[in-house]
Structure formats: C-alpha cells, structure tokens
Write a structure and sequence with these properties.
This protein is mostly helical. It is built from 2 helices and no strands. The relative contact order is 0.09.
Length: 56
Amino acid sequence: MNAVTEPETLSELIADCAFIPATLQAESLPTPLVTAEPWQVDEACHAQVAELDAYV
C-alpha cells in the first residue's frame, strides 16, 4: 500500500483496500439510533427556486 499516491490499477486498489482495519469496515459499523424525518418540499421551498431554470 502506498498512502501517498492514488492506485492506478484495479489490482492496486484491491491491495490498498486489504489494509483497511476491520473496525472501519461497513459491516462492523453500528446502526444509527435515530432516523431522519423524510424530506418534503413545501410551497415556500418550491417558491424559492420557482423561477430558476437551473433547478428544473
């Protein structure tokens, strides 16, 4: 593993990933205790970007 440069091949990337400690791997992460409320767009939020074509 070379921590200074980016891997240039898939083999180098796989080799680099082998050095990730088990404590940082996704399978060992605790589940979140709180879930966020679903995000909803109300009329006030929509009105802020209603005239902006970039958001359409």
